[in-house]
Design a protein that fits this description.
The protein is of the alpha/beta class and 232 residues long. It contains eight helices and eleven strands. Helices cover 42% and strands 20% of the residues.
């Protein structure tokens, strides 16, 4: 369950929000000033921060700027929560990187709905985000440049061999049948037999495996199909 950090110098508001979050199964952490908030974010790594604008010491604007300036927290979802309803404050909060903005007094139901909405959006974003590079046991892949190295040596692969390698390396440990591989790699519009999949994988292995009879990257799962090796 996602962990939410509530940052506000008003204990009653923190407790109210915490009670409602915990009632819905969320994990909650609390901070009452900007410095404590920054320390707790680094230590506890919350999934979302509810951040008051008016805080003792470091204010909410500066906390937000600090988080956005560091790669580890640059994408951390932040909801600004403040008594200031002035449009200028709202614009400033959003321009420095807050994901949403809600003013006091606020509806707890509305706040909870916004929290769920942002967390769903982050979840969807993370599902579609693909890394540009992959590395495992001497195999290095740059998906953007289509370059493949084995122990530092460049390997020239055909377009289909690249597609197969990209597909498997992006789903390590997961077993695919030959029919599934055809659907995912070749697509519905191409006719290819399941046996032809074996041929293509054998060719790919001949390029990337030191011993094609005992592969360490693309493995055969007898009775099912193929998978990329498990990554620990």
């Amino acid at each position: 369950m996602p962990k939410i950090l509530i940052v506000d110098d008003e204990k009653d508001i923190v407790d109210l929000i915490a009670y409602n979050l915990e009632s819905e199964g969320f994990s909650v952490a609390k901070a009452y000033d900007g410095e404590s908030a920054i320390r707790m974010i680094k230590a506890k790594k919350p999934d979302l921060v509810i951040l008051d604008l008016m805080l003792p010491g470091i204010n909410g604007i500066d906390v937000c700027k600090n988080l956005r300036a560091h790669p580890a927290t640059s994408d951390l979802p932040i909801i600004m929560l403040t008594a200031k309803a002035d449009e200028v404050d709202k614009v400033v909060g959003l321009e420095i990187g807050a994901d949403d903005y809600i003013t006091k007094p606020f509806s707890v139901k509305e706040l909870m709905a916004r929290i769920r909405s942002i967390l769903r959006r982050v979840q969807d974003r993370d599902k579609t985000k693909s890394p540009e590079k992959f590395s495992h046991a001497g195999l290095e892949i740059n998906y953007a440049s289509c370059k493949v190295n084995i122990h530092g040596k460049a390997i020239n692969l055909s377009p289909m061999e690249l597609k197969l390698l990209f597909f498997f390396s992006r789903h390590p440990g997961r077993v695919y049948t030959r029919d599934q591989i055809i659907d995912y790699v070749w697509g519905d519009g191409t006719f290819i037999t399941p046996r032809a999949v074996d041929v293509h994988i054998r060719r790919l292995r001949s390029q990337i495996e030191k011993d094609v009879e005992n592969p360490k990257y693309i493995l055969t799962v007898r009775g099912f199909g193929y998978k990329f090796a498990d990554i620990k």
